[in-house]
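Journal club prep, notes for RB
We'll compare a predicted complex against what the paper describes. Inputs for the flavin-adenine dinucleotide case:
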Amino acid sequence: MAATKLTDIMKERQTLSFELYPPKTEKGMLKLPDIIAHLCDFQPDYISCTYGAGGGNVGANRQVCQMVRNAGSVPVTHFTVIKNTKSKMKEQMDMYLEEGVDHILALRGDIPLGETTTCGDFQYATDLVKYIKDTYGDKFEIAVAGSPEGHITCSSIESDIGFLRQKQDNGADYIMTQLCWDMEQFKRWLDMIRKAGVTLPINVGIMPVLDMKATINVALSRNGCVIERELARLISKYWIFPDPFDSNPPFRDDERERKLADFRKAGIEYTIKQIEAYRACGINGIHLYAMNKWEAVTEIIHATGLNAQI
Ligand code: FAD
């Protein structure tokens, strides 16, 4: 059994967790222990680390997981089936267990550009959950993704929820959600999944709103998430002309720097309100996509009292 059972903690109180990604450069890797140390000041219940589709960054991902362990927190590795054969997956999972990483977020991953399949032995996260359970029993505690707005490629939200139920039936332990700024949709989804018999605890994924480009990018480049009215209003208010993606100085908007700073400030206030609204929905944990930025996370946590367990 996983050494720390996160779902036991979720029965007692709402958890707090962060998400990191393995930096691409050596310099970035060297800075990470300090970032993790700052995040650990808030005693997160776990820190998850993303996994590059195809397993290209698995070495760096394993290093990050060890940094998290060394800092005294619980690492959760993300894992995808993209370009992964069963034998490669087993090799990697054996390695994670040997290194004391017994928490996994079982994902399909995004289909590689130009392909129509995962180019691996499994096509869906449901298959991966079943494989982990059949191969390792309870050795891993298994998280799965949930999409409150429906996954971008799903044929209907009902079918997507049906597959979420299948992940539960195959042995998943809890859900981490895709970002969702549309609170009314989240509440509808929560109601729908419970009616469909999905009883798993839910950790809500929150993407802090800090940077206009990144906010638009993460919503639209892959996920097709709704940018709800209040967030759209903020984006318009601080819009950088001619467009926020214009990265060639000299910039035409004289107020660029002020707008960047004001958007960040307003975005943090917006994120704080979102977290408060989510916590009031009876969810089981807040999972902050910290994106290796501890300063903004610190502001958010201080304002929301999220580290109440300290
Ligand atoms: P699935 O649950 O398999 O769903 C994919 C699509 O197939 C959906 O439309 C679903 O309705 C449909 N479907 C599901 N099961 C079946 C079935 N059995 N038969 C037919 N259709 C089915 N990506 C990365 O590459 N690396 C990461 O580290 C990473 N971290 C993430 C962290 C979180 C918290 C979240 C929410 C997502 C993350 N992603 C990551 C993105 C994720 O890999 C993509 O959203 C991917 O496109 C779908 O993964 P999934 O596990 O939700 O897929």
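Talking point for the session: Residues 50-51, 53, 78, 80, 105, 107-110, 124-126, 145, 151, 153-154, 159-160, 163, 176, 178, 205 surround flavin-adenine dinucleotide (CB under 6 Å).
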